[in-house]
Amino acid sequence: MSPKKKTKKIPKKKQDRSENDLEAKYRRSVLDVAILQDHIAVQCESVRTVQSDRIDLRRRARDMDQKLQHERQDHRDVNSNISRQYKTMQTELINKAKGLETDVSQLNEELALCQEELRKEKREREQMEQEKDATIAQLQHKLDNMETDYEKILHDTLDSLTSQLSAARQRQEDTGTTFHQNYQGLLSEFGLNALDI
């Protein structure tokens, strides 16, 4: 068995004081407990507010994350669309440039052909003009020769006609004189005077 404790007898004054101390301690403890409970209640309220804020922040973070994901997806879609449009436009421009280069090449070939044809036409025209000028000069020379020949023929013909007319007049005069003399002779045979008739 355990030894019995010896109880000391505390005097009453001391006992009242102890009870007062104990009561003060109890009150202080109750007050401390109340303060601690208030503090715990405040802390609990703070924790609830923090948890509510954390839930709200998580929800907002999820919303922001979803929004960011949507924006990233939209950005990717826009970039993809712009890239596709850029590639399409680049392809169209390359094709258009190739088409224009082909057109320019064809037009240059046509221009070269047209220039060659123009040079050929000019040469032919110059040659025709030279031939025409030569023909005109030749014809002018022939015309001048013919004019000279015709003048000569005309002069010869006129000279021939003049000489023929002179010869004919001379024959006429000779014939007329002969006839005149013959008539005078016949008239004198008949005894007539030609001056009287």
UniProtKB/TrEMBL annotation:
Q: Which InterPro entries match?
A: DRC12-like
Location, primary (coarse class): cytoplasm
* Superkingdom as given in the UniProt entry: Eukaryota
- Basic residues composition bias: residue spans: 1-15
- Record keyword Protein transport present: no
Q: Which UniProt keywords apply?
A: Cell projection, Cilium, Coiled coil, Cytoplasm, Cytoskeleton, Flagellum
Coiled coil feature spans: 90-156
Region named Disordered: 1-21
The cellular location(s) given in this protein's UniProt record come to: Cytoplasm, Cytoskeleton, Flagellum axoneme
Q: Which family does it belong to?
A: Belongs to the DRC12 family.
Functional note:
Component of the nexin-dynein regulatory complex (N-DRC), a key regulator of ciliary/flagellar motility which maintains the alignment and integrity of the distal axoneme and regulates microtubule sliding in motile axonemes.
Could you give the subunit structure recorded for this chain? Answer: Component of the nexin-dynein regulatory complex (N-DRC).
Q: What is the official name of this protein in its record?
A: Dynein regulatory complex protein 12
What is the species of this protein? Pleuronectes platessa (European plaice)
Q: What is the lineage of its organism?
A: Eukaryota, Metazoa, Chordata, Craniata, Vertebrata
